[in-house]
């Protein structure tokens, strides 16, 4: 493009600024080429005229678009120049606090002077395995790139860390080594990586010091080689050091310190082990107090010294050697305090003999005090012929002392480095290494000396190597993309290097001058002027003759020549060295031995064992007086040459550290200092090289996606994107040199991307303008339509108003006419009416006069008539009274005569007998009925007596037989003790019988009395019943009267009364139905009473009737079933509506009746059995006396029973009668209460009669039992008294004593049983009374409610009454429905009880069968060969779910089921089949009680599973298969353990299969632990499979096509930086990830894994997805955009949909995705106002403050229409989130695992139904 196009209006530029280096401005007027002034506007809106000159002031640099500001790769900038680089670094450093930025292959690291949470282990894990361009810039990314290229290319790597002091070189190198130690940890337990990291504290202590620029400045250079084996695990390391700053030992500038080790040792001087060092505070020593500040803020020297000692120990330095090192360091401090006194002549000096520091120095080093004192002040001169001892001046002696101190420290430093290398050395063969070079950067101070010269010389060499490497990479990139290679002109600093190291260069001249005996710095400087003045890079200062200037690649540096020769010579007198060699301490003597031999031996030995050659960077100087001794410059040049050879043999990676300010302030950026360092470290040179070629590179798809808006519609139809991009560029960019088409990328010259961005922005701007135009047109059209509509509306309203006014006028005119017409009419009518009224008045008065005259005449005639009428009436009345009195007198006389005649006739009839007969006719009928009833009862009594006689005879014969058997038994045994015991028992029985007779008499008396009372009570109840009936009639009459009184009301009231009358009729009908039921119950009672005395009524012994209660099995009461059946029948007969109220009462009565019927039937059956037995034995009839005894027994028992029963009934009936009477009196107005009372009274009466009948039957039976027992006792007694022992022997059947005792105990038990039955009947009666009370309360409430309903209904309107009645009917039906449901539930409950009882019986039977089988098996245990035959002969239906195997087949079983098992082999069978088979084998071993077999099988199973999993540790299918089987085996052991907690869900058959003999709780715990281990392995395998898919699927794949924008790529996205052996990230999509999850879930489901465990696996996998996604989002700026947030939310929604489809949404997986969900929402929400900040704080609750701020800092707009997040907004967020107590965590822990829970899930599978497929080859198993 032309200048006119580039420098147009609104273009932004950079102009120079003295303070900020560069300043932003904007062109406010188009510039035309050739104009001298460029019109600008600064950021503060102030105008500026910028002068343009062809030489002095060229056109200013152009600014990059805002979309490119803050890029993480400087080469991605469209305009590559110094201001763009500086601004990009400043923005990244200050706003989002990003300290790392790529610049091509260089990582620029800015020291933040603050602790950042970006170096944790989770960050290392996040960067491990990632491509360099995929993640945000980081030192770990460079380390990962080096590690990956080492493994991929089989080539050694180097990381070159450079920068000036305080820029952070040492920390960066330390973090790089930490990354290698974490990622490439040692394969064994040697902890090499820990030793590598432990070397850092040691080297910092002895090689770092505080300077004015850095509190922890490295004063030496080091190159650490970390060795790796073929598996790329660390096996060792080696360290080389360069140019230790020895002068710092004896001198420090103001506010600086010596090396840290001196201060650490002084801070620890109080320790007991350091007492002999004689150290005090560092302020007391000259070598540590020259800087006047011995402390560093925030540093504890004593704590650091402990870390140093720990590092020495970890590296294997012995305690004695450590003490020796500390002695040497202390001796150097004492040496510095040795006071040298000058003599008077000034040419000599001496040291005081009492100098304590010299004594301490000699003592600590083990040397002679006198010799050291002498040679510190003298020196030896050796010539060819003689040796002289010369005195030294005080200054010379001080210099010699300082030189000795530096020499001692340097040798100690080299010794420590050598021993560190030995501890890091390994005997294993090294395959490759990665070197980390931590070397000082380019330095320039106000006074630059020999040290700065060497440092800048080394940086010149490194810069040359850097330039060559960059040039080589550019060439490789162009050749790989098949772009024509054009030579790029870049700065070559070889002339500057030749100036320093070439023949007769600066170093050669310096060495030459050092060899001259009287050489001086001035002479050497003059030689430089003479020899090197012709060089372009050498200059002589104008104002100085003792300095020179070298033009380095970074800047001009002026060096002062003073001290060059001395520092280069590094002179140490031989006498001092010889004294130290003679030290009594071995370590001190070894330090100063001749190092040539040692160095050669060490080198040769190391070369044999490892590829790492341990070379000393600065060999120990030889004897100083030898001419061939190497100078410091020569040594440094040699070591630097060796370093360059090493670097050239490796692939270098560059880290340039920048110091942002000199005040060490956190996140403060000084532009001038930063530019100086950028120029010095070669970053700008890299930019210049990139800008000279094609710095901007785009892949074809990315270019197509970004700039397709510039294409035509026809171009979009072409399928080849390369062709489309080519056509577009050829159309847009006319100059073909501005771009090149590569194989996979398009290369652009500098500025072309900005031009394309401008075209794209213009296109969008034009599109926006078009959209705005259309929208504005639409808005105007809408506005115009609204105006038109408003105008029409106004017109319509105006015209309407005018029309209404006109109509109003017409109405007024018409009204006026009407008013006139009416007025005229009224006026005329009034005149007419006046005339008419006058005429009528005259006529009226005239007619009145004539009428009054006629009336006067009529009045006179009328008065005469009245007088006549009254006179005639008086005459007639007087005549009538006379006639009436005469008639009355005649009638009275006649009636008196008739009455006298009738009286005489009645007196005659009363004296006759016929009248008496009529009166006594009813009484005779009653007497006859009573006589018949007495005859019937007499017959029944005779029948019962006969039955008792027969029963007594049978019992007597039985007693005789028992006596005979007893005599026979006695004769056999010959023992008289038994006879005595029987006699005693008989005596007791007689006594009990007598007591029973006496008690019976009492009961008879009480019974007669109670009977009389009860009859009186019944009469009272009948009277009360009659009273209640009369009250009922009164109530009915009142209701009828009320209904008649309301007939005269309105029709609505009559309808309501009709409905009420209908309801009353229904209530009457219900009452009649209840009466009918009562009569039915009475008839039933009569039938039962008649059936009581049938001739077939017999019973058996009472002990047989108690079998049911004595049984061990729980009984099933059929009364409940019968009660519910009768209740349902009653509901069907009466209807739901009528039975709803009284169903509870009837159910209780029916239940009681049914119980009594069952008792009667049971007793009758027993009696019949007993009768049959007596017939078979031939019992004779009983006598009359026995019948009388039976009657007495019956009467006594009956009286006793009724006495106790009636006492209870008496109180209950009185209370019930009283309560009912009270309530009836209170509610006498209610007819329903009367009905309810009568109903309850009838039911109570029927129940009492029924109870009397049943009790009478029970007493009859009991009396029969008692009489039978008495007869047996008498017969037994008679036999005992009359018969002798010989007669007993003649009996055919001997009597057994035990049998007699059993019969006696049976009688006692029957007695107890009857008592218990009576008590239970009493309790039931009490329950019935309570039920009656409850029913009365319910009836009362019901009546009150109905009365309220009646009153409410009467007060309603007819329509409301209809509606209300419908609602009431619905409510009633609903209640009836609920009652029926309760009945159904009761029936179902009874059914369940019966089924449960049936299962219990079945279980008992099966247990008996199993016990029998077990007994049979135990009897055959002596014959093991028969056991197998027995199990084989079992039928299939008897299979008990066990598998038998021989002990020798156990290995084959384990091998078949576990070792050789493949999941697909059992895929078509029952899931977890191996687990079931193993458990069935365990069951059989438990069944036969073989503990060794159980132990062996379980142990072998567990060990085999562990071996299989170890062999297939990366196979998800196998791991899932054995997790399912292990957990199923664990569940089986729990389910069949016999523990009730695990048997709640078992079937009866499964409970039978429980283990019988062994408790396997310990094995359950082992299996539980094994399941947890398998689960963890399963999760690990799944995470390993999903790890490479997560980032690509969640963040990079376009699930929503064309949504994600594309930004210009930097150098890091070049193909050479990618992993060639791996597929690109685009190969994994969200569908692939979901498909993989579905595959995992399908495999787990196919193997029968519990859904709960599968849900936990999915939950863990979703956490891993969340952690990896969020960590990458926090470390990648390119994905922190609105479009990525949209894609991410869509992807998460798809995963949530997958969870819902798999029914896993309740597993907690979605909760684990909450952080990444909130991160996606954070990318999409507005980020401008304070309301937005508040919304973000309330939204992002799952994210920490660091994560939120990091995402906001990383947020990048993908086009110019989006805006960055302002710094003020981020500060606002931080202030709002300060209240949170978040853990200071940036990245999530990807290794976190949730605790797994294995819920107990029993199996519904029955073991006996399990089928074993034939393909498993388990023929040696036998089904049992």
TrEMBL record:
Residues in Myosin N-terminal SH3-like domain copies: 8-60
Limits of the Dilute domain: 1499-1779
Coiled-coil ranges (or none): 1146-1226, 1322-1411
Sequence ranges of Low complexity compositional bias: 600-610
Gene Ontology MF, one: microfilament motor activity
Domain Myosin motor: from-to ranges: 69-761
Example GO BP: actin filament organization
Keyword Nucleotide-binding found: yes
Region feature Actin-binding, mapped onto this chain: 640-662
Binding site for ATP: 163-170
InterPro entries: Dilute_dom (IPR002710), IQ_motif_EF-hand-BS (IPR000048), Kinesin_motor_dom_sf (IPR036961), Myo5a/b_dom (IPR058662), Myo5b_CBD (IPR037990), Myosin_head_motor_dom-like (IPR001609), MYSc_Myo5 (IPR036103), P-loop_NTPase (IPR027417)
Comp. bias intervals (Polar residues): 1101-1121
Cited Pfam families: DIL, IQ, Myo5a, Myosin_head
UniProt-annotated stretches for the region Disordered: 595-631, 997-1018, 1042-1061, 1089-1122
UniProt entry tagged with the keyword Repeat: yes
GO cellular component: cytoplasm; membrane; myosin complex; Schaffer collateral - CA1 synapse
Keyword set, alphabetical order: Actin-binding, ATP-binding, Calmodulin-binding, Coiled coil, Motor protein, Myosin, Nucleotide-binding, Phosphoprotein, Repeat
Source organism, top-level taxon: Eukaryota
Family that this chain belongs to: Belongs to the TRAFAC class myosin-kinesin ATPase superfamily. Myosin family.
Name of this protein: Unconventional myosin-Vb isoform X2
Organism: Salmo salar
